[in-house]
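Narrative of accomplishments. A recurring question from our advisory board has been how the design workflow behaves on a single, concrete structure rather than in aggregate. To address it, we present the structure tokens for one chain from the evaluation set, followed by the sequence designed for it. No filtering or post-editing was applied between the two.
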């Protein structure tokens, strides 16, 4: 009998580590993967595709990571990206860290060289202790050495990525594990799906009551909506609280559209005044980091009190004292806040509303004139003003945005009307995320995507236009080309004859890149051309590229964060002198003459 059993076991079907990892991912509903293949993960990617996972082959690991991060933000479930060992793995660490800082659930899977030779430093091909290197870049870093542990490793990665504050998780799969085998029936029986990976965290009633009482006593209450509020996907609960109380609100960039930007309670056009005069501020999914000046200093009312809703208790008092910490997930918390409105009289005073409305009207009139003024060449304001006209008619288009002035001005000019329809550099403030985010958004949603870049930012990840064409994704890329980092009029102060460290090519025809891969390119020099070309490109639902020619003098040093530059770079001309230069576009090229 024993002999018969042994014989049966020896002839039973087997599975290997690569197939088993794919099966574990599918069991947990992961049906997309972004990546760059090579030793030792090429066959793993082939198997994943064969078994039903949509594999999006990218041109750089960082872009694959950013595509997965976009998916995580839009769905609340971890996006997955794949890299090869060592150099490819290292390329993936930046987006892994960025996803963690942004609070996006992401799982990075990398192949790894044999542990036995790596640990003894024998000079293995692409040998690196990857799990150890990944630790400071993510929430957790795991290595699966035995294929029997694959269901557990995947489960731990998913729960870690999604629970609490979401973030990045790393899984290393050594080549020795990929080739291991085990009984296929036993492997199948051991698979399981994670049960509720992001459990609700209900705040204490005492903290909710304290927060509502503080709001009830406020003279000038203000709400800040961060991208965490958009990620939480409790849109109705947040909208109900804002509208029932009438409290003015300020959306952070990726929270734009959670309530439409044209909502009368929005303080987007009077943010400075709102911050300087608010006496109680409710933070929903927003953190007091550098983007909010750490909640202190000249930008804030010196007597302001903060209510902070956060799922991570270590975030409280991160940069200053928080009057009312409310620890819980946003959906559960906002449910209790709305229920509490029956006990607390919370509303914004007419004086407060009128003060903000007057400042909004004044700023809109001044800023609106900039977006409608015809100039030749264009600048960021009127080029984006033309974009706004198109986006105002296409609310469901997802907007991706990166650059310095391109990012800052687009955030201020182009309105959003639906939640989770804007992605940008976020908490860490890095460039080179745009095309990856655009691809992830298009693959995840199937919706049209407009990806707007500065010419400098586009250079980090521009090759992914080929990926968009290869997968025929409905993405329209747009570069606002002012010929440099911040702008294109800097000179070589050392007189070497070389371009300035900030100078790029103001006459470059970036649209030709997509034409090389079968997409449609456009070159725009006027507001009408931007509007008509963008309308046509979005309607095509095909890969398109619009290169918008700007003046080399368009833009300011470091965008809106020039105070972070310890030694500001001084350009060759002041802004008052710049307006006296004569420029024009002739035969598709920017022609510049001397000052008049």
């Amino acid at each position: 009998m024993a002999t018969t059993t042994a014989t049966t076991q020896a002839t039973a079907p087997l599975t290997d580590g690569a197939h088993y990892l794919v099966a574990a991912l599918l069991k947990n509903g992961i049906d997309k993967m972004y990546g760059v293949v090579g030793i030792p993960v090429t066959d793993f990617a082939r198997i994943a595709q064969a078994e039903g996972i949509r594999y999006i082959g990218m041109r750089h690991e960082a872009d694959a990571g950013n595509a997965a991060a976009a998916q995580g933000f839009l769905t609340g479930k971890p996006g997955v990206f794949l890299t090869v060992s060592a150099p490819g793995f290292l390329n993936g660490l930046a987006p892994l860290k960025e996803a963690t800082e942004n609070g996006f659930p992401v799982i990075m899977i990398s192949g790894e060289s044999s542990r036995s030779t790596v640990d003894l430093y024998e000079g293995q091909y692409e040998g690196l202790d990857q799990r150890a290197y990944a630790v400071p870049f993510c929430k957790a870093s795991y290595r699966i050495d035995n294929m029997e542990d694959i269901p557990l490793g995947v489960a731990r990665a998913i729960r870690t990525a999604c629970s609490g504050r979401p973030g990045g998780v790393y899984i290393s799969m050594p080549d020795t594990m990929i080739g291991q085998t085990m009984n296929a029936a036993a492997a199948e029986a051991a698979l399981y799906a994670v049960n509720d990976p992001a459990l609700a965290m209900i705040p204490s009633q005492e903290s909710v009551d304290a927060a509502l009482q503080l709001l009830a006593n406020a003279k000038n209450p203000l709400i800040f909506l961060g991208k965490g509020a958009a990620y939480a996907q409790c849109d109705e609960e947040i909208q109900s609280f804002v509208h029932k109380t009438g409290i003015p609100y300020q959306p952070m960039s990726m929270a734009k559209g959670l309530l439409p930007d044209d909502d009368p309670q929005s303080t987007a056009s009077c943010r400075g005044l709102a911050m300087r005069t608010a006496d109680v501020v409710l933070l929903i999914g927003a953190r007091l980091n550098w983007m909010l000046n750490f909640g202190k200093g000249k930008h804030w009312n010196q007597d302001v009190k903060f209510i902070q809703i956060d799922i991570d208790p270590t975030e409280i008092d991160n940069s200053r004292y928080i009057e009312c910490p409310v620890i819980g997930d946003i959906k559960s918390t906002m449910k209790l806040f709305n229920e509490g409105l029956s006990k607390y009289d919370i509303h914004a005073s007419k004086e407060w509303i009128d003060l903000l409305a007057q400042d909004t009207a004044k700023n809109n009139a001044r800023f609106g004139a900039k977006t409608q003024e015809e100039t030749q060449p264009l600048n960021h304001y009127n080029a984006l003003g033309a974009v706004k006209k198109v986006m105002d008619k296409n609310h469901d288009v997802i907007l991706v945005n990166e650059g310095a002035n391109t990012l800052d001005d687009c955030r201020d000019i182009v309105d959003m009307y639906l939640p989770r329809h804007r992605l940008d550099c976020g908490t860490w403030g890095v460039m080179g995320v745009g095309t990856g985010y655009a691809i992830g958004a298009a693959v995840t949603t199937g919706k049209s995507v407009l990806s707007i870049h500065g010419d400098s930012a586009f250079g980090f990840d521009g090759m992914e236009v080929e990926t968009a064409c290869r997968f025929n994704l409905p993405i329209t890329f747009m570069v606002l080309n002012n010929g440099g980092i911040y702008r294109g009029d800097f000179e070589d102060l050392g007189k070497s004859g070389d371009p300035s460290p900030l100078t790029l090519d103001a006459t470059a025809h970036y649209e030709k890149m997509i034409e090389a891969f079968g997409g449609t390119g456009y070159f725009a020099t006027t507001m009408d051309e931007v509007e008509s070309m963008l309308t046509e490109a979005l309607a095509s639902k095909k890969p398109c590229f619009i290169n918008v020619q700007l003046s080399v003098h368009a833009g300011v040093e470091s965008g809106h964060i020039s105070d972070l530059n310890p030694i500001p770079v001084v350009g060759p001309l002041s802004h008052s002198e710049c307006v006296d230069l004569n420029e024009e576009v002739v035969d598709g090229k920017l022609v510049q003459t001397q000052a008049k």
